[in-house]
Design brief:
CATH topology: Sulfite Oxidase, Chain A, domain 2
Helix content: 10-25%
Low-confidence stretches: 1-62
Protein name: Oxidoreductase
Number of helices: 6
Strand order of the largest sheet: 2-1-10-5-6
CATH architecture: Alpha-Beta Complex
Number of domains: 1
Radius of gyration: 18 Å
């Protein structure tokens, strides 16, 4: 992981909830109205992108059912040689992992639906990586720890889980998605994947895992999203649970 000053230099202007919901609304309209309006929507979004300094709409190509969001402007990619994932906070053994270090650890592959809180779903998506529980066990959790905070090398995004949630078998530090290395647009080279929760909990561009005494609100939770984001049981939505 780069140092604090490096991350600050890369930080873009955070995207407000009004902008985000406006773009999400346009995307939902395209899905609901069918291919004719979708083609018109693509043209509109292209025009918006030329005027949008945040880079948000540049990350919205529709590929395989996924939508792409960033809460800052363009995010600088990190290669295998300069990527680092730190584990710190209330642990006995703070650590820093390279991508090669993570690849050398036991890998778990799960196939699960991905559900976005904005409504779209991609079924049966394979993710593979290191169980977050294994990294936490290697670090040694200290007395008083109750939660885990995740930071990202975009310089703005963050998320949190309770310690019990973080230790689930379906929570991964993911290195592969759809049986390929996680691409930069999908949050690579390493992202979080929290299978039973809405996709905003699966932080992209993961760079830090910090064990904390309490749950700290993540980026979107400061704007009213639920901290416990179980699919179909939170955020006022009734989506079928992911499977």
């Amino acid at each position: 992981m780069g140092n604090v000053n490096d991350d600050a230099a890369q930080r873009g202007t955070p995207v407000g909830r009004r902008v985000m919901l406006g773009v999400i609304g346009l995307g939902a309209a395209g899905v609901a109205a069918g291919p004719v309006l979708s083609r018109a929507l693509d043209s509109v979004l292209s025009g918006v992108a030329r005027k949008d300094p945040t880079g948000l709409t540049d990350l919205l190509p529709n590929s395989g059912g996924f939508r792409y969001y960033s809460v800052t402007g363009p995010v600088e990619a990190r290669s295998a040689t300069d990527y680092r994932l730190t584990v710190d906070g209330l642990v006995d053994h703070p650590a820093s992992y390279t991508l090669a270090d993570l690849e050398a650890l036991p890998q778990t592959r799960i196939v699960h639906d991905v559900q976005c809180v904005t409504g779209w779903r991609v079924s049966a998506t394979p993710f593979q990586g290191v169980k977050l529980a294994d990294l936490l066990a290697a670090a040694g959790i200290q007395r008083g720890a109750a939660a885990v905070r995740f930071s990202c090398f975009d310089g703005s995004y963050s998320e949190s889980l309770t310690l019990d949630q973080a230790r689930r078998d379906d929570v991964l530090v993911a290195l592969r998605m759809q049986d390929r290395p996680v691409t930069h647009d999908h949050g690579g080279p390493v992202r979080l994947y929290v299978a039973p929760m809405y996709f905003y909990k699966s932080a992209k561009w993961l760079s830090g895992i910090t064990v904390t005494p309490t749950v700290q609100k993540g980026y979107w939770e400061h704007y009213g999203y639920d901290t416990d984001a179980w699919v179909g049981r939170s955020n006022g939505r009734d989506d079928a649970p992911t499977s």
